[in-house]
Write a structure and sequence with these properties.
Blueprint lengths: L4 E10 L3 H12 L5 E4 L6 H10 L3 E6 L2 E6 L3 E7 L5 H16 L6 E3 L9 H12 L10 E4 L18 H9 L4 E7 L13 H10 L2 H9 L2 E3 L2 H4 L8
Parallel strand pairs: 1-2, 1-8, 1-9, 2-3, 3-6, 7-8
Antiparallel strand pairs: 4-5
Helix pairs in contact: 1-6, 5-7
Length: about 240
């Protein structure tokens, strides 16, 4: 890829629910989303996979090994968590389900609430990514990761200023040379069982904003997917 700046706009939580999937699909078809990460155990996983099979959306695996929510008294508290001894098996089961649902391997690998960044999960994820020859979020050096487009602070409080069109435009203008993954979480309507709710609709508005699309063009940013950039990047995993 010859462009000075290339951007993968990757929507997490695909398959979570009808509301999340509606937002991801709209942000892909009307906005700048180019990729998504599929949660294979969630209620809408089959419908999301069906869309992936018939569209040009680049889809990877969003592994779930737990979920944590912020409590004012206790800080971040686990809602559920995979036992350390079962991390390898849990990742394998989710990968097998992904391939069964989508009909092909994932184009990239990441995890819910970024649990793959720490051991014992990290070693397993590195191994799987290397075997599949796909990028692993934040561990493929040639793909920079940007998580700044997010509507809550570190304690789970709403921060809508971070997901406005103005904020997204500023982020686009500040992209470094090379390939960047921009993580996002669009949604449409009520989000059952999610601590990240109304922020998803704000993200959707920004991702589909005409001024955002114009900024991509005027900044000469190439929108792309993991499948397009992976073959020359994954050799060093």
């Amino acid at each position: 890829m010859s462009a000075a700046r290339a951007l993968i706009v990757n929507a997490d939580d695909f398959g979570h629910s009808e509301a999340v999937d509606a937002g991801v699909i709209e942000a892909h078809e009307r906005g700048i989303v180019t990729a998504a990460s599929l949660m294979v155990r969630r209620p809408n996983a089959e419908a999301a996979a069906a869309y992936a099979r018939r569209s040009d959306l680049d889809v990877g695996l969003h592994v779930e090994l737990g979920e944590w929510r912020h409590d004012e008294q206790q800080g971040w508290v686990a809602v559920y968590e995979t036992e350390a001894s079962d991390v390898r098996g849990d990742v394998a089961r989710q990968l097998e389900r992904f391939e069964r649902l989508v009909g092909r391997p994932p184009t990239h690998l990441d995890s819910h609430q970024h649990v793959h960044r720490e051991e014992p999960a990290l070693a397993v994820f590195r191994e799987v990514a290397a075997r599949l020859r796909v990028p692993l979020r934040q561990f493929t050096p040639e793909i920079a990761f940007n998580g700044g487009f997010y509507g809550q602070d570190d304690e789970g409080r709403p921060y809508p200023e971070h997901v406005s069109p103005r904020a997204l435009i500023a982020l686009l203008r500040s992209l470094p040379p090379g390939v960047t993954e921009l993580c996002c979480h669009p949604g449409r309507g009520q989000i059952p069982g999610s601590s990240y709710g109304s922020e998803r609709e704000l993200e959707l508005v920004a991702l589909c904003d005409p001024d955002v699309a114009r900024t991509v063009a005027t900044e000469q940013i190439t929108l792309t997917g993991f499948a397009e950039v992976s073959p020359r990047l994954v050799a060093g995993l």
